[in-house]
Amino acid sequence: MAADVSAPTLGARFKRPSVIGLLGLLFVAALVFWLIVNLIKTPSDFGDVFLIGITNGSVYALIALGYTLVYGILELINFAHGDVFMLAGMFTITFSTHFFGLHQGQGWVTVPIVFATLLLAMLACGSINAAIEFVAYRPLRGAPRLAPLITAIGVSFIIQDIGLAWKGPNYVTAPDVFPHSNVFSAGGVDYSWNKLIVVLVTIPVLLALLWLVQETRQGKAMRATAQDKDAAAIMGINVNRTISFTFLIAGALAGAAGTLYSLWATTVRFDQGFQLGLIAFTAAVLGGIGNLPGAVLGAVLIGLIQAFNEGLNWHAPGSDWTQSIVFSILILILVFRPEGLLGEKTPEGG
Amino acid sequence: MSANGRSPGAPILEVGDVHTYYGSIHALKGVSLTVNDGEIVTLLGANGAGKTTTLRSINGLNRPRQGSIRFDGRDITTVPAHEIVRRGIAQSPEGRRLFPRMTVTENLEMGAFQRHDRSEIREDMERVFELFPRLQERRSQKAGTMSGGEQQMCAIGRALMARPKLLLLDEPSLGLAPIFVERIFDIIRQINEQGTSILLVEQNALMALDAADRGYVLETGRIVLADDAASLKTNEEVRKTYLGET
Ligand SMILES: Nc1ncnc2c1ncn2[C@@H]1O[C@H](COP(=O)(O)OP(=O)(O)O)[C@@H](O)[C@H]1O
Ligand SMILES: [Mg+2]
Description:
- The complex is a heterodimer.
- Chain A is mainly alpha-helical.
- Chain A contains 14 helices and 4 strands.
- The longest helix of chain A is centred in the N-terminal third of the chain and has 32 residues, at 43-74.
- In chain B, the strands form 2 sheets. A 6-stranded mixed sheet of chain B has the order 6-7-8-3-9-10, with helices on both faces.
- The longest helix of chain B has 16 residues, at 178-193.
- Classes of the chains: A mainly alpha, B alpha/beta.
- Chain A binds chain B through residues 217, 220-221, 223-224, 227-228, 230-239, 346-348, and chain B through 59-61, 80-86, 90-91, 93, 97-102, 106, 109-111, 113-114, 144-145, 158, 162.
- Magnesium ion is lined by residues 51-52, 94 of chain B.
- Adenosine-5'-diphosphate binds at residues 22, 25, 27, 45, 47-53 of chain B.
């Protein structure tokens, strides 16, 4: 304390670059150098990889928003969220092929089937997520924070086992119905329809969510509940119902993500939720957990980082390293900027 | 006769032998009190006496294990917190509890959350701004960034936005500069004159008894004194304990 008081203001303004700060700068410089070399060496690959990153990033955004919404309202890291996303992929396969008989080359009828599948998956995952909250988290509302966290890990395992029992231990394929033809092709960079479709469906969903949270009565109730539950209750807000609603929305977003991802990547496996959940969670933390635009920004950045890592030619670590890199990013943010890129230090948070 | 010159009406709030717990901690050990229509009633007591718990029992945040609470002729003992404001009880809670990342205007709108009469809500907001011109200046500021006095005004304004029949105020003067304290008590009187009954929890006993019609003194979860405000002010026990006289 005494050191704080006596430290001259100059010291605060011109902070001597610490060893860690220097290392960080060097690292960022090396990263930029690496990207530029790749861009120069193989510009068309760079462009392709960039587009893949954006596409994955928009799916991650949908998942990351679920983490951030739930964290915002309960300060709970819902470890089961990635697995709900995985379930959505399985629902997508079941609904689209078994209910609607979707397969490749059906022409325009594909469109309503995909939309119906999307809506059903959103509905199913929204309901499941709300049910998870009701059964697994609500009874622990007054318990120490660790209790719901451990429960969330348990729920994650349970959902994985359900997925395992439902579709087996191997990859199951989803119908490859998004057209692979190009939207445009310039300088060797191909932008195919299947990538664009993912982004085109994601954007209105994101806008709808933002509108919901910012403008509607339910959204106001969500924001108030996130900031102070008792105060929200005495305003006349049904706090439990608002929390249920938040889980419903988060689950629906995971449902949308699961449908898009499974139809784009065309494979689903019971343990897929773990890795993608980790990536999306990191995205949420990177953007500032609890911050909606932050989750989208973080997701796009993580999507790009992953794509560059897995797709670039010149000295890229490759997909074996993706999890390590994502985890390293998570640790670095938690250590050096826990409020994330867009998160603000709130007065009550200190 | 009431301090505002009107004679008090029928009981609007009746708290009867209420016992409230935090887990196994027995915080209220049979509290009974009444607020009549149009009155300002003050609830005095030292830190930890159970004043806040009494208000939380009334507004549904801590359900009593025993006893009853009647409001406006109906039993509300087991009515959930989010229904209470619809019945006509609003509160400015201890510590103000504004929504820190919302603006002043948004906070005031939250106070009217359960109402749907849009044009009247807007009128009420203008009335709150008349009462607290300072809030109007700060209407687009985030509530969490305001001073304690401004936050207190916002918390009272937010409660008024519910158009309550009964207003619960929990230590509205706590931590405020003396000129703010005067202002807050003036406004409490004004609100009461416009017809809202008030249950005022205070540690600032002198100011509270000046504003109130009647008062109760709470000690470790029990009411130990109940009288007219004027009589309480001259009561020796009260003078010793709460008005700092020896
Ligand atoms: N959240 C809580 N958990 C456990 N005990 C509490 C809690 N809040 C208050 N208490 C206890 O209940 C009693 C009454 O507290 P409170 O109503 O806050 O008093 P006051 O508002 O008069 O200062 C005190 O003994 C206090 O320690
Ligand atoms: Mg108190």
